TrEMBL record:
PANTHER family: HTH-TYPE TRANSCRIPTIONAL REGULATOR CMTR, TRANSCRIPTIONAL REGULATOR-RELATED. This is Metalloregulator ArsR/SmtB family transcription factor. It holds the Pfam family HTH_5. Residues 4-97 form the HTH arsR-type domain. Gene3D superfamilies: Winged helix-like DNA-binding domain superfamily/Winged helix DNA-binding domain. CDD domains: HTH_ARSR. InterPro entries: ArsR-like_HTH (IPR011991), HTH_ArsR_DNA-bd_dom (IPR001845), HTH_Metal-responsive_Reg (IPR052543), WH-like_DNA-bd_sf (IPR036388), WH_DNA-bd_sf (IPR036390).
Length: 111
């Protein structure tokens, strides 16, 4: 059974994962389908080294998992519900804050 502290920790890990634009792009790509790092690097137009660092972060947070396939390793979301949560969160944020940026919020002292 989860405690309030462990629930808060899980949400904070998810928040840290979403705090970086590259990690957001990775998660949005993986919500569509599992992928190999080389393919993700090409799709997201980032270096394999940079991608590897972000995948390690997401893996350490428990949000993505690796699936060995011979000599290759495939990445996928740790749970299909994460993909649905990303869709729901993205839809809600875009519906409410479509015309806002964090810079505006920071200038007003909101975050």
């Amino acid at each position: 059974m989860l405690t309030i502290a462990s629930e808060i920790d899980a949400l904070a890990r998810f928040g840290r994962a979403l705090a970086d634009p590259i990690r957001c792009r990775i998660l949005l790509a993986l919500r569509k389908a599992p992928a190999y790092p080389a393919d993700l690097a090409v799709q997201l137009e980032i270096s394999r080294t940079r991608l590897s660092n972000h995948l390690a972060c997401l893996r350490d947070c428990g949000i993505v998992v690796t699936v060995p396939e011979g000599r290759r390793t495939r990445y996928e979301l740790a749970d299909a519900r994460l993909g649905r949560a990303l869709d729901d969160l993205r839809g809600a944020v875009l519906a409410v804050e479509a015309d806002r940026t964090c810079v505006e919020a920071e200038e007003k002292g909101c975050c």
